[in-house]
Design a protein that fits this description.
Strand content: 15-25%
Strand order of the largest sheet: 1-2-3-4-5
Structural class: alpha+beta
Oligomer: single chain
Helix content: 25-40%
Shape: globular
Distance between the termini: 86 Å
Largest sheet: 5 strands, antiparallel
Number of strands: 5
Radius of gyration: 19 Å
Number of helices: 2
């Protein structure tokens, strides 16, 4: 028997992220889930691109899943210094109604696809120039006699 009364919405979202091999955590103060790239530890997640997953209209993500009335969205943000964020784009949106498990799985896939597209774009731009963000700029001066 599936007892959704004992399972918070956040647990369903975090499980869906784990299935697609993306880490996430519940931000208790704001009551939403944050997904971040696997190579970043949780304490550095907000310093980089991350995705906030939430339910609309002030629904409680930490509340029980059986009270889920539908609607779910994920928005990608660019982190600056952990205190100021700029939204990049809406990654996923489900309208009210529907099944939480279906919405969570679709949202997690959209999040994973979004991060994959960002990584592919960054790799492609690095491949084209032969440089990436970790390359040092080397300069030399040669006197011409």
């Amino acid at each position: 028997m599936n007892n959704l009364a004992a399972i918070p919405v956040a647990a369903v979202l975090l499980h869906a992220l784990a299935v697609v091999e993306f880490p996430g955590f519940l931000e208790l103060d704001e009551d939403f889930v944050i997904a971040h790239p696997p190579h970043l530890p949780q304490d550095k997640a907000l310093d980089s691109e991350h995705v906030i997953i939430n339910t609309p209209w002030g629904a409680d993500v930490s509340g029980p899943a059986h009270q889920y009335t539908g609607g779910l969205y994920a928005v990608a943000y660019e982190g600056y210094d952990g205190s100021d964020y700029c939204d990049i784009e809406r990654v996923y949106e489900a309208q009210p109604g529907g099944d939480l498990m279906v919405h969570a799985a679709a949202c997690a896939k959209a999040v994973a696809d979004w991060f994959a597209s960002r990584q592919t774009t960054a790799e492609a731009s690095g491949d084209e120039s032969g440089a990436d963000d970790t390359d040092e700029v080397r300069t030399s001066t040669t006197e011409v006699c």
